[in-house]
């Protein structure tokens, strides 16, 4: 581990269990959020909201990965580096699939000049995500920094991306409702695709967390270790 101070075994176990609970909460929240978003998006013809729902599923996969690793650490110790990196590449592949899907649907919507319906429930869902996800991301980040754990920090980064996606999707939906411009929703979908490609590339390279500066003064000591890897791996 690359923690900033030596933690005793009970403290490490306490933080690891907290990280596991946060991962489980992420899965539970995102499964519900994703199902609701996809349903609302399909009903209203909102491509970006459907893409947002699929992204919730992807974030759930990442949280499952982290949860499994933390649970394995509690039971047996160090996680399996080879399995971890293989799974991270599978997660990266799902990001690329997401980017391809929303890009295709966005282009199709633009070509057909399809006007999505307004959806107040979708707006409420996106606002809820903007409120909940930053709190969850901050809690994960505190645990990750305390443990010096790159996987937990990566999961926190995934959740922060979900916040950005919520904001971009909400902007597209609200601006469409205010202006009636049908092209705004596909543009929001393209923003999601861009985020997905970026995060997919970072996941594939094992570097989801690449800059720890600027978070209340904690990040300066983690730069050299801000890569997705096995806790305990030399920094």
UniProtKB/TrEMBL annotation:
Pfam families: Cation_efflux (PF01545)
Cell compartments where the protein resides: Cytoplasmic vesicle, Secretory vesicle, Synaptic vesicle membrane; Early endosome membrane
Primary residence: membrane
The keyword Kinase appears for this protein: no
Residue intervals of the Cation efflux protein transmembrane domain: 27-200
GO molecular function: monoatomic cation transmembrane transporter activity
Family named by the database record: Belongs to the TMEM163 family.
Name of this chain's protein: Divalent metal cation (Fe/Co/Zn/Cd) transporter
Species annotation: Cellulomonas cellasea
